[in-house]
Design goal:
two-stranded antiparallel sheet; binds adenosine-3'-5'-diphosphate
Length: 313
């Protein structure tokens, strides 16, 4: 049976059980001024992460929650398998140790980094953290990072539905309540605008490639080719087609019970662009436009988001 390398079922099951018996206000904790889910992150793990040694050939995905990180994880793990002459998705494409680890760096127990030293290269690592909270070795060792960004209105929409679909996060009675929290830095993993602003400081670095959710959606073949080139992975036409087929929304959703177990339904929702139009009031839309203008419109990443195209009615 195909297993995702992004999920460790045991860990997630335990976290879900713990979250079920928590009060809403206990579900998030603050670490260095940012909120994180109590049941899947911990101060001990963050402390241990600081000294984690990233390798120069690790394949790293960075993205704010709900930017499509599970989608790009699928693409990247398949590309890694291809680079190792393995068949993506086959039993042999991941060894048992790799299957056990959660790829999201900040999620899991504090001992995971020790276990991860035993994983063969290239390792796949993902994270929702801002760059200053990642281990210093990422930048010291010049590991390549794919930075995934998505327009803020669809991110907020996706985050709202996710918060109501998963027990790790506080749920919301109304979209209006969620919107207020999203705009006032009360989200797990922190504020979207600060995330983009901080990553913008790294956007010109040679070892960072930025891609938007919308451009992968628009032209998946070109996006996968560009990603493969960035990581130095040669691809035949047949391999490209296989990666595309396996990473389509339909096929990922269909397989999601197997690959993502109990959180599958919450993760693979609509997989499209502009669903924000079903939730945002005119006033909320204007508030978001203003925040975008103030914080990121003038930056390189801000321009890459093509805000006018995807976020104006
Ligand atoms: P929606 O809630 O808008 O549907 P993340 O993986 O970072 O949590 O992001 C989740 C978002 O990515 C969800 O957005 C989800 O449906 C979308 N997604 C997941 N797999 C996808 C795919 N193969 N193609 C397009 N979107 C995908």
């Amino acid at each position: 049976m195909e297993k995702s390398r992004n999920i460790s079922e045991d860990f997630i099951q335990k976290a879900m059980a713990a979250a079920n018996s928590m009060r809403r206000d206990e579900l998030l904790f603050s670490y260095k001024g940012t909120l994180y889910p109590t049941t899947i992150c911990s101060p001990e793990t963050f402390k241990a992460l600081e000294s984690f040694e990233v390798r120069s050939d690790d394949v790293i995905l960075a993205g704010y929650p709900k930017s499509g990180t599970n989608w790009l994880s699928q693409i990247l793990t398949d590309l890694i398998a291809i680079s190792q002459k393995k068949t993506p998705g086959s039993e042999s494409s991941l060894n048992a140790e790799e299957q056990k680890e959660i790829a999201y760096l900040e999620v899991g127990d504090a001992k995971k980094y020790e276990r991860m030293t035993r994983l063969p290269s290239p390792r796949f690592l993902a994270s929702h953290l801002r760059p200053e909270n990642l281990p210093k070795s990422i930048f010291k060792n010049n590991a390549k990072i794919l930075l995934l960004i998505r327009n803020p209105k669809d991110v907020a929409t996706s985050f709202y539905h996710f918060s109501n679909g998963i027990v790790f996060l506080p749920s919301y009675e109304t979209w209006n309540d969620f919107f207020t929290d999203f705009m006032t830095k009360k989200m797990a993993w922190g504020c979207y605008f600060e995330y983009i602003s901080e990553w913008n400081k790294y956007a010109d670095k040679e070892n960072i490639m930025t891609i938007t959710y919308e451009e992968v959606k628009e032209n998946p073949a070109l996006s996968v080719k560009n990603i493969a080139t960035f990581f130095g992975i040669p691809l035949t036409e047949e391999e490209l087609q296989l990666v595309l087929e396996r990473s389509s929304f339909q096929s990922m959703k269909k397989n999601s019970d197997k690959t993502h177990g109990p959180i599958a339904n919450a993760l693979f929702r609509k997989g499209g662009v502009s669903d924000w139009k079903n939730l945002f009031s005119e006033d909320q839309s204007e508030k978001m436009d203003k925040a975008f203008e103030e914080h990121i419109a003038g930056t390189k990443l801000g321009k890459k988001l093509k805000y006018d195209l995807y976020c104006k009615a």
